[in-house]
Amino acid sequence: MATKMKTSTWDSVDYLKTEDDIAEYFEACLIEGGGDPAFVAHALGVIARARGMAQVARDAGISREGLYKALSEDGNPSFGTVLKVVKALGLQLHASKLSA
Predict the structure, then answer these.
(1) pLDDT per residue over 50-72, tens digit each?
(2) Which long-range contacts (CB under 8 A, 24 or more apart) does 59-64 make?
């Protein structure tokens, strides 16, 4: 008799428990998806959900609904919105020279 395997949906939010977890996740997302604005926006959305979307929206000066929309799959946040969210999350964007 075959045993049924239990599976669950993967949600990165479940693994963002500490400030270090969040910073490392964001850094990895910038490296892996740095050329894809939607990827970076999605990463910010994941982090915002881990922190509490309503609080992040307040800290960024954006409505909660606006934040959800901006960071949704169909969202296209302005760079200004991205910077506000990054700051509200207590994160920084970093630049370094690409290796050849």
Answers:
(1) 999 999 999 999 999 999 999 98
(2) 59/87, 59/88, 60/84, 60/85, 60/87, 60/88
